[in-house]
Amino acid sequence: MRLVSFPAAALVVVLSVSAAAQQEYVEFASRRDGFTIIFPTQPSVTETTFKTQTGTVLPARVYTSESPAGRYQVTVADYTNIHQLATDKAKDCPPGAETCSGTESDVSSTGRGYWKADISGATIYATYLYLQRDAKLAFMGWATMDLVEGTLMNLVNNKDKSVTSVGIYMHENKLYMFEGTRPAGQPPSDWFQQNVGWLDPDGYPIRYLSVYHQGYPRPEFRRGRTPVQ
Q: What is the pLDDT of residue 89?
């Protein structure tokens, strides 16, 4: 079971059944970014960038689906090459500016250009960015999706009282931000960020046998028999 408590799981089932009764949903998979999820409609994909806490600019993609059911979005920031990108960025730091350049040795806690700090704190920084929105935090808690640990949030937007449900995960050096927004008075879109699945590089679905923590040795996992198309 993916969720951290039985009441939350029960809520997801109710909302999923209600949503499915209203329209056909799209089972979407991205082999490139290694995830699966259910969208209300086929999403558009936009190439963009993501700036880390210390200013390193990373490649990113945004998957967006809009329909009467609300607005649903997945942002994936790729930290795979952050070591080199942060090191290159540090070359432009003023002499002696350690808070910009970090340390030369990769056995330090920061690494050159603070690449180690950026990747270790990626999910915390993403959470911080959501908390800067003009919204009231209604819920925040820990969860796992196929045993990849992450953070769940519900935000009530001050402008129109719509509710944004958020899931933030870090898996295999990629930061994932799942969010669904529904109008005021409608059930929140918790089902969206709680239907996340993971793919290996060959497109096979995987599920870990113990909790996956970014930066720690990868735990054992089970692989599905058929890759996604």
A: 94
19: helix, coil or strand? helix
Q: Are 181 and 162 in contact, with CB atoms under 8 Å apart?
A: yes
Cβ contacts of 223 within 8 Å, gap of 6 or more: 200, 204, 205, 206
Give ∠ CA 76-34-144 in degrees, rounded to 5.
80
In the predicted structure, residue 196 carries a pLDDT above the cut 80: yes
Segments making up each domain of the chain, as ranges: 6-80+122-223
* DSSP 8-class letter at 203: S
- Return the half-sphere exposure (C-beta side, CA atoms, 13 A cut-off) of residue 32: 11
Burial of 120 (0-12, 13-18, 19+ CB in 10 A): middle
Closest CA to 167 of 187, 147, 186, 195: 195
Q: What does the DSSP 8-state code read for residue 135?
A: E
Class of domain 6-80+122-223: alpha beta
* Cβ count within 10 A of residue 80: 13
Would you state the structure tokens that stand for residue 191, as one six-digit string?
Answer: 């089902």
- Does the model's pTM come out above 0.85? yes
Edge-first strand listing for the sheet containing 163-171: 44-51, 57-67, 70-78, 174-182, 163-171, 148-157, 135-145
If you ran DSSP here, which 8-state letter would residue 187 be given? P
Tokens standing for residue 37? 């999820």
- Residues 71-75 have a mean pLDDT of 97
